């Protein structure tokens, strides 16, 4: 398994592999467009070729694409819902063009429609997103911290959605350690938490980890990342998470502040290599 972090694509996506390498990454996560909105930069044949050459140059095997922040498959606003379908599908096509392993997305919020209808609408919209898609890059769904009725704080919700969509183009989930902790999955009680995850969605469905410690208590429903070992999840729990990821060949992406993300990467490598 590889350890890396989210890196900027300022100046073009082909600038990202060097940035990742400079931080000590073995894999990386990027946006291919502004996460806040606007037109996506064109991926011309020259850009694609240069990006792939840089990936090879810096020996980065896998990379992952995060969709923009405004995705909401359960909005009561038609334009937002169908806009989300269009952008996620476009990210899959772009990912396929440049060789991404997975595109990950949040799903949106249930506040407009209520929980039951929001799940049904999310399933319907994801089916539209994946209609006739045949690329190698697969979609994975990210769990949430649970603030403001965000869909996916409970992993059984994600399991219901994946089952409902029933597409080979959804590979599973990206499991964020901080979001899950904030949603009541206590990584400090590792075996119990693993058993709970297995019963709700199946451990085989974990395809990627977002590795972040937590500034807030277990069950807080607040999305607040901390550097590894400096939050309430703590180093002992991360040693167990890394061992699990290593055993199951699941890559890990850090989303901690870039001031000391290299330290976090080195610490996780140390846990892995022990």
Q: What do these coordinates show?
A:
The protein has 274 residues and is an alpha/beta fold. The protein has a single domain, classed as Alpha-Beta Barrel (TIM Barrel), CATH 3.20.20.150. The chain contains nine helices and ten strands. The strands form two sheets. Strands 1-2-3-4-5-6-7-10 form an eight-stranded parallel β-barrel, surrounded by four helices. The protein has a two-stranded antiparallel ribbon with strand order 8-9. The chain is globular and about 50 Å long.
The SSE order reads EHEHEHEHEHEHHEEEHEH
Helix segment count? 9
The name of the CATH topology is TIM Barrel
Supply the CATH class: Alpha Beta
Could you list the spans in which at least 5 consecutive residues all have pLDDT below 50? none
Q: Considering the protein shown, what is the CATH homologous superfamily?
A: Divalent-metal-dependent TIM barrel enzymes
Which CATH architecture would you pick? Alpha-Beta Barrel
Mean pLDDT reading? 96
Rg over C-alpha atoms, rounded to the nearest angstrom = 18 Å
Structural class: alpha/beta
**What is the number of domains?**
1
């Amino acid at each position: 398994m590889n350890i890396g972090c989210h890196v900027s694509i300022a100046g073009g996506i082909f600038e990202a592999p060097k940035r990742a390498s400079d931080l000590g990454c073995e894999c990386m996560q990027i946006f291919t467009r502004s996460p806040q909105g606007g037109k996506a930069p064109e991926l011309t044949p020259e850009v694609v070729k240069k990006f792939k050459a840089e990936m090879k140059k810096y020996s980065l095997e896998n990379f992952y694409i995060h969709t923009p922040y405004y995705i909401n498959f359960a909005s009561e606003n038609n334009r937002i819902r169908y806009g989300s379908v269009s952008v996620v599908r476009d990210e899959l096509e772009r990912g396929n063009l440049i060789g991404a392993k997975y595109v990950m997305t949040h799903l949106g919020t249930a506040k407009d429609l209520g929980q039951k209808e929001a799940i049904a609408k999310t399933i319907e919209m994801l089916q539209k997103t994946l209609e006739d898609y045949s690329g190698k890059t697969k979609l994975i769904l990210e769990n949430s911290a649970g603030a403001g009725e965000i869909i996916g704080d409970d992993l059984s919700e994600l399991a219901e959605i994946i089952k409902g969509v029933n597409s080979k183009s959804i590979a599973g989930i990206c499991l964020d350690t901080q979001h899950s902790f904030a949603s009541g999955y206590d990584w400090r009680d590792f075996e119990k938490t693993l058993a709970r995850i297995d019963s709700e969605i199946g451990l085989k469905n974990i395809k990627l980890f977002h590795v972040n410690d937590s500034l807030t208590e277990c069950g807080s429903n607040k999305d607040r990342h901390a550097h590894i070992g400096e939050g309430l999840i703590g180093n002992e729990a991360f040693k167990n998470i890394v061992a699990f990821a290593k055993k199951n060949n699941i890559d890990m992406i850090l989303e901690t502040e870039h001031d000391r993300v290299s330290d976090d990467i080195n610490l996780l490598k140390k846990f892995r290599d022990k």
